[in-house]
């Protein structure tokens, strides 16, 4: 995927302070959801949500660059599974409809048609050649679970993340620092839970590095 532009196309710059504030708001919202139990659940949830926003921002930049070079752009995700299709509108799908779209094998999509749910679609991605970003996304989401059960709270989190604009290299650098902080919190939280099940720990260890490490190093 192409590098982020230095300019951020008129969007407000996502400074470290602003990003920290948004993440704090997201975590405060997540604390209200009965499906999540502490930061060991909240941080992976926030990771996959932020990743899908990051991916869509990067895809839009790459599409612009590809068109300028006169080439054909092939997106990693097709409509209506891109962030801009189902997540970007503040009054978009919410409640039980949103949970069904994310979790179910088949669901009513944001375009009103029935089709694979979001995670089912992401897990079924296949690249034209081995090792491209579609294969990476599919592998990551095969080990990802949406643990939020309240679709209205999930919509609130999504709307907060929509205020993050990954459209400059400075913003990617800022998120990288926050990611390191989140990883440290995840490790600290795990250290305090002596009875943590090995399966849960393995899921977390696989999820965070798989998604964000590849994203921040440009390997998606």
Give an account of the 3D structure.
The protein is an all-alpha fold and 220 residues long. The chain has one domain (16-214): N6 adenine-specific DNA methyltransferase, N-terminal domain (Ferritin, Up-down Bundle). It contains nine helices and two strands, in the order H-H-H-H-E-E-H-H-H-H-H. The protein has helices spanning 16-30, 39-68, 83-86, 95-103, 118-123, 133-142, 151-161, 169-192, 198-216; strands at residues 106-108, 114-116. A two-stranded antiparallel ribbon has the order 1-2. The longest helix has 30 residues, at 39-68. It starts with 15 loop residues before the first helix and ends with a helix.
Short synopsis of the structure:
The chain is mainly alpha-helical. The chain has nine helices and two strands.
């Amino acid at each position: 995927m192409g590098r982020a532009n230095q300019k951020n196309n008129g969007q407000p710059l996502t400074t470290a302070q602003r990003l920290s504030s948004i993440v704090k708001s997201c975590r405060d919202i997540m604390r209200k959801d009965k499906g999540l139990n502490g930061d060991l659940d909240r941080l992976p949830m926030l990771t996959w949500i932020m990743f899908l926003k990051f991916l869509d921002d990067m895809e839009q930049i790459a599409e612009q660059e590809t068109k300028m070079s006169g080439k054909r752009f092939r997106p990693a995700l097709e409509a209506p599974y891109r962030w801009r299709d189902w997540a970007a509108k503040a009054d978009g799908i919410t409640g039980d409809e949103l949970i069904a779209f994310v979790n179910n094998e088949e669901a009513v999509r944001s375009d009103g048609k029935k089709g694979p749910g979001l995670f089912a679609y992401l897990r079924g991605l296949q690249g034209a050649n081995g090792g491209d970003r579609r294969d990476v996304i599919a592998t990551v989401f095969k080990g990802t679970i949406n643990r939020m059960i309240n679709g209205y709270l999930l919509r609130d989190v999504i709307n907060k993340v929509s205020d993050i604009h990954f459209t400059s290299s400075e913003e990617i650098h800022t998120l990288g620092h926050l990611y390191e902080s989140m990883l440290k919190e995840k490790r600290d939280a795990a250290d305090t839970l002596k009875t943590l099940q090995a399966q849960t720990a393995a899921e977390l260890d696989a999820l965070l590095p798989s998604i964000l490490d590849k994203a921040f190093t440009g390997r998606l």
